[in-house]
Amino acid sequence: MKSKDAVIYERDFLCQTYSRPPVLFVKGDGCRLWDAEGRSYLDLVGGLAVCSLGHCHSKVIEAIKSQSESLIHTSNLYYTKPQLELAKRLSELSFEGKTFFCNSGAEANEAAIKLARLYGQGRYTILTAKGSFHGRTLATLSATGQEKIQNGYLPLVSGFKYIEFNSLESAESIIDEETVAIMLEVVQGEKGIWQVDIDYLLGLRDLCDKYNLLLIFDEVQTGIGRCGYLFAYQFYGVEPDIITLAKGLAGGLPIGAMIAEKEIASLFAPGSHASTFGGNPVSCSASLAVLSVVAQDGFLQDVRNKGDYLKERLREIPSIKDVRGMGLMIGATIDRDVKKVTADCLEKGLLINAPAPQILRFVPPLIITAEEIDEAISVLKEILK
Ligand SMILES: Cc1ncc(COP(=O)(O)O)c(C=O)c1O
Question: Does the global pTM surpass 0.90?
Answer without folding.
Answer: yes
